[in-house]
Amino acid sequence: MPIVNRVSAFADDIAAWRHDFHENPEILYEVHRTAAIVADKLKAFGVDEVVTGIGKTGVVGVIKGRQSGSGKVIGLRADMDALPIQEIVERPYKSKTPGKMHACGHDGHTAMLLGAARYLSETRNFDGTAIVIFQPAEEGGGGGKAMIEDGLMTRWKIDEVYGMHNMPGVPVGTFAMRTGPTMAAADRFVIDIEGRGGHAAMPNQTIDTIIVAMTIGQALQSIVARNVDPVESAVLSITTFHAGDAFNVIPQTARITGTVRTFKKDVQDLVEKRMGEIITGIASSMGATASLDYERGYPPTVNHADQTTFAAKVAMDVVGADKVTTDHPPLMGAEDFSYMLEERPGAYIFVGNGDTPVCHHPAYDFDDNAALYGASFWARLVEMALPAR
Predict the structure, then answer these.
(1) Is 317 an active-site residue?
(2) I need a labelling partner for 53 at 20 to 30 A (CA). Which of 20, 190, 280, 329 fits?
(3) Angle at 267 between CA 262 and CA 270, to 5 degrees
(4) Between 265-285 and 209-226, two packed helices, what is the crossing angle to 10 degrees?
(5) 185-295, what's its fold?
(6) Is 138 a residue of the active site?
(7) Which residues are annotated as a binding site for Mn(2+)?
(8) Residues 5-183+300-385, CATH architecture
(9) pLDDT tens across 39-96, in order?
(10) Pick the catalytic residue: 87, 127, 138, 187?
C-alpha cells in the first residue's frame, strides 16, 4: 500500500497544520508559536512525554510501544524554522509575516512528523520507543547541535536517528537516499586585505588592494582545480567583494567573503591550508598584508550503511522498489542533521516534492501530498525497526 490507511484518513488535518505553519513562519530559534502548537498537539495525541525547551526552543515527544522496555529507541527528526525570504506567490495560506516564509518545506516536515506521531500514539503497534524530535534553527543556527548539547541523545537513550527532507524535482510518491556522504560541510571565510590607498590618478604611489584582491580571487580557484584530488569533491565560491566607495580613490582595504563545501575532513583541511598560503603569499609579494578568517560550519552529512539500507527497505514497503533510489547523487548543500549522525547511527532520506521551484526560492511550496508519503514512511520505519511481538 502506498500510504498507511490511517495516515490517509487524517490527510486534511496534516495539510491544515502545514498551511497554518506556512502562514506563520518563524526563523532560527524564534519558533515559539510553532513549538507551542507542536507540543499541544503531541499532548492531545496522547504522547507519553512531551518536553519543550530542548536546544532553546526544540520539542521532544516520547511514544512508547506495547513493550517499551524491550526494544530499541528510534529518533525521528523534523526541522521547524523558516527563512528570511519574501514569498512572491499568492496562496490562500501565504505567509502573513513580511520578509519571512517557509521556502524550504520545514512546515511540511513538521506536519508530516506530527501525522506520524498521531498514528503511532493511536496504534502502538511496535515494541520499543519512538522519539519524535522537532528542531529549531536548521537554517544556519545549528539547532541540531544545540539539542544534542542539551542531552537529546543521552537523556532519551536514542540508539538510531533518522531525518527526512523534501526534494523538488523528484516525483511525489518516491524516495531517494545514499550511503555515505550525502550533503557537504559548509564553511565560511573572510579575507581582509590592507594596502596603501591613494589617488586613482597616481597608482604608482599606492598598493592597490583591488588588484591584490582580484589576484587572490583568481588564485584561490586553482585549489580545487590543482590541489584537490580529482576524484574528490570540493567547491570554493567567492560570493562578495567589497572595496572602495569613490571613483577616483584607490581603497586602503578590501574584503572578500565566500564559502567552501567539502565531503571529507582531509579535503577540508587541505583547502583551508592552501587558502592561507595563497592569500599570505600573494599579498606579501604585492606589498600588502592579508588575513584569513576561516570558520567551519556544519559538518558533512554522512549516512550510515546499515541504517540507510534499512531506510530503503522501509521506503520500498511504502511505495515499491521501483520508486526508491538508493544511489542519489550527493549534494553540496549542508544540513545540521549531520551533528546527529555524528552522535548516533542513522540516515537522512529525501522524499519527492514534485515539479516545484527549488528550496530557498521565493516561489517554493511544499506539496501536501508528499506529507502523506513522509508520514507513512515514519510510521512504517518505527513498526519495522521495532516489530511488535
Answers:
(1) no
(2) 20
(3) 125
(4) 150
(5) Alpha-Beta Plaits (3.30.70)
(6) yes
(7) 104, 106, 139, 165, 360
(8) 3-Layer(aba) Sandwich (3.40)
(9) 999 999 999 999 999 999 999 999 999 876 668 999 999 999 999 999 999 999 999 9
(10) 138
